Amino acid sequence: MHESAKPMNAKEILDREFLQIRSHILDIAAALDRQDRADGDTRFDSRRQLLEEGLAILRSDSSDRAAKVQLLFSREYDPAWREA
Amino acid sequence: MYYIDPHIHMVSRTTDDYETLAKMGCVAISEPAFWAGFDRCTVDGFRDYFHQLTEVEPNRAAAYGIRHFTWLCINAKEAENVSLSREVLAMIPEFLDCPNVLGIGEIGLNKNTPNEATIFQEHMELAVKYDQQVLIHTPHLEDKYQGTRMILDMLADHSSMDRSRILVDHVEEHTVEPVLDAGYWAGITLYPVSKCTPARAVDIIERVGTEGASRLCVNSAGDWGPSKPTAVPDLILEMRRRGHAESLIRQIVFENPRTFFQQSKHFDLLDPATRNDG
Question: Complex ipTM, two decimals?
C-alpha cells in the first residue's frame, strides 16, 4: 500500500492543466483551418473522418477516452489471424 | 532518487548522455538489441553489434558508475529477412554466457507479417531451450493493438515458460490490460513524440491498481530517433507533482525493473542506497 502525500483533486488538476489543454485545442483548430484554407478538399478523406470521430470521443462522457481514441486509430485484430 | 532505465539504446547515445543519466540518479540500464536505422546485410554485422552490446557499452557505462545489461536477438524489422534471421538465431548462443546478458530481446512484431511471426516463434523456442528471459517489442501506432494481441496469442503457445519472466514493452492505454491480465510484465515507453508521454504513463499507473503496478516498468527507449534519454526522471517529477508517495515512485522506477531482472542469473545489482553500509 502506497500512501499518497496529497493526491490532486479535480479542480487542482484543471488549474494545473487548463492552459495546456487550451493550447492543444488551439493546435487542432488551427490544423483543421490550415487544411480547409489550402487548395483541395480533405472532408471525404478517410483520415479526416477518423479525426472527426476522435473529436467526438473527446466530447463523450466516457472515463476511458484515451483508450477509445487509441482503438479508433488501430488496425483490427482478427483472433483467427493464423488461418489467414 | 536512484532509478533503472530498463530499455534504452545507448549505442545511439553520446558519452555525455551517460554522464547526464548518472547525474540524474540512473544506476543501471538494460539495452535490448534493435534496429540500427538501416537493415544489416550479414550475420557478421550482428556479431559485431553483439560485441558492442556485451563489451563496449558496459565499459562506457562503467566509467560513470552505471551498470549495463543487454538482451540479444534480431529485431522484428530485420526479421522480415528469414534466412538472415536464422543465421543470427544460430549465432546468439555464442553470447548468452556474457556476464551482462539478461535474455532474448527485443523480439516482437513490426508490421505484423507472417515472416515476423515465424521468427518471433523461433526466438521463443531459443529462449525456452536456453532458459532465458524475454523482452518483447510491440508495434507502434495503428499496428500496436493488432500486433500486441497476435504476440499474446503466440506467447500462449509456450506454456512451459513462466509468464513472470516475460516483459511486453511499449504498452499504452489500449494494450496494458490484456498484457497484465495474461500475467506478463508490461513496459511503458516514454517518448516526446508518437508514443506515451510521462503524464499519460502516470495515468496508466493510476488506473491499473496496486497489483498491476507491481508488474509495470517505465523506460525512455533513448534510441536513434527523436527521444529523450532522461524521460524516466520526467516521470518521477510528474508523479511527485501529482502527490504520489515516494515508495510508489521508487517501486516503479527501481524496484520493479530490479525484481524482473533478478530472474536472470546475470543480474546482480545491489541497492545503491546500501552500498556503503558494509
Answer: 0.89
